[in-house]
Design brief:
CATH architecture of the largest domain: 2-Layer Sandwich
CATH superfamily of the largest domain: Glutamine synthetase/guanido kinase, catalytic domain
Mean pLDDT: 92
Strand content: 15-25%
Shape: globular
Number of strands: 14
């Protein structure tokens, strides 16, 4: 969209009295400002400024103690450049507003390498240089919960008036119970140009999955995903629920994933993963090899939070080992069947709590590593991958941070700036969790030991 089209859109929507302009930080959280509609031109022309350190603050919004971006640069401002999307209408606030996505540049106009969207753009440009275009689709799972209380509880059905108390995978009746909420989600997706496809009831009570159709621009795919998460949370509140994309809100229920499907097409529009067979092309196999080789180093991007690792356990519909297979949902990488022309890779490691920009950058970067270095994968797994002795995905948060920090391939995928920012951010978050004693610890130990 051109800036003049944005101004014209705002003139046609006088009900929009304010705008939000924001970047996405390392945790995928929108950080920005509310501005009057009369200042829209300033945002579109790069006149909005924010500290570049805002991209690397922790999940609570706190500066990183001793962080280099704050103290070594004097907490310098960066330029908020318009991404070209929007204004994105937001109808679930008390008064209608609109969102203008921006990303960070340095004072001299060069992209700020610690911005997650910039990291994905850098990987995408490497594919463009090879004459390849990633075709990307995402599947996002989430739970609706009762907003009352500090702990999540399954929502009350708007139809029966009863609390959902059982797993209802693919139950049409659960979709019907929440049809008003889902109708509003689809309407908002259409207004925001998010290609929402099928919705299903997933394994947990109040858990849903909505698929986003494939697009030929990884940046748009990630933009769609972060906007989708925002609108689901906003519309849920309108309907008296809360929506959570936590990886594992219930210890004894299914976790929520962010599954990524992708293929690659050449300049002639041919899928380079397709060789007319069920096995797929040599390029597909090399991409699989690269994804497996880089998976331990990249796990922090797929599981960025303490809670993330509650999901990555054997037998929980989420992968725990570094493996791949054809039509095998127990593996980290699945090659779906069907028409060879649609041959693709499904990456099943990331949780719904992950930052879509960093997830896609890690996946596409890993695939590119395999293609460029012709990395051959091990044999595909047939049957239950959980029962096999496989190389492990890092089993906990600290191990994932260490693997990301020490990774030999990470500097070829991400900038040193982003790598250090993420490590510093996650170490600060780990320290905060380590300092807090849980209620369960008190119940277990207080008068026992």
């Amino acid at each position: 969209m051109h800036p003049t089209e944005v101004i014209e859109w705002l003139k046609r929507h006088p009900e929009v009295s304010s705008l939000r302009a924001a970047i996405r930080d390392l945790n995928g959280i929108a950080r920005g400002k509310r501005i009057p509609v009369s200042h829209a031109q300033k945002v579109l022309e790069g006149g909005l400024r924010m500290p570049v350190s805002i991209a690397g603050i922790d999940v609570w919004g706190e500066d990183i103690v001793g962080g280099r971006l704050v103290f070594e640069t004097g907490d310098a401002d960066g330029i908020c450049e318009w991404t070209g999307r929007g204004p994105v209408p937001v109808e679930w606030t008390p008064r209608p507003t609109a969102f203008i996505p921006v990303w960070l540049a340095l004072e001299d106009g060069t992209p700020f390498p610690g911005d997650p969207r910039r990291a994905l753009a850098a990987i995408s440009s490497r594919f463009t240089a090879l004459g390849l275009t990633p075709i990307v689709a995402m599947e996002l799972e989430f739970y609706l919960v009762d907003p009352a209380g500090e702990r999540p509880q399954a929502p009350i059905s708007p139809v029966s008036g009863k609390i959902l108390d059982s797993d209802s995978v693919l139950a049409v009746r659960e979709l019907d119970h929440f049809h008003s909420f889902l109708d509003d989600v689809y309407e908002a997706c259409a207004a925001q140009d998010i290609p929402a496809d099928t919705a299903i009831a997933e394994n947990g009570p109040g858990q849903f999955e909505i698929n986003l159709l494939h697009v030929s621009d990884p940046l748009k795919a990630a933009d769609d995903a972060v906007l989708f998460k925002d609108l689901v949370r906003g519309i849920a509140r309108q309907h008296g629920f809360a929506a959570t994309f936590m990886a594992k809100p219930y210890g004894d229920r299914a976790g929520s994933g962010l599954h990524v499907h992708f293929s690659l097409v050449d300049r002639q529009g041919r899928n380079v993963f397709d060789n007319g067979t069920e096995q797929g092309s040599e390029t597909l196999l090399h991409a699989v090899g690269g994804l497996l080789a880089t998976m331990p180093e990249c796990t922090l991007l797929f599981a960025p939070h303490m809670n993330s690792f509650r999901r990555l356990r054997p037998g929980t519909h989420a992968p725990s080992g570094v493996a791949w297979g054809y039509e095998n949902r127990t593996t980290a990488l699945r090659i779906p069947g069907g028409d060879p022309k649609a041959r693709r890779i499904e990456h099943r490691v990331a949780g719904a709590d992950a930052n879509p920009y960093l997830v896609l950058a890690a996946i596409l970067g890993g695939a590119l590593e395999g293609i460029e270095h012709r990395i051959a994968p091990p044999d595909p797994i047939v049957g239950n991958a959980y029962s096999r002795d496989l190389p492990d995905i890092p089993p906990d948060w600290a191990s994932a941070v260490d693997a990301f920090e020490d990774g030999l391939v990470i500097p070829r995928i991400f900038s040193r700036t982003l790598q250090q920012m993420l490590v510093d951010c996650k170490r600060q978050e780990m320290e905060a969790f380590a300092e807090r004693v849980t209620t369960f610890e008190y119940h277990t130990y207080l008068e026992t030991v």
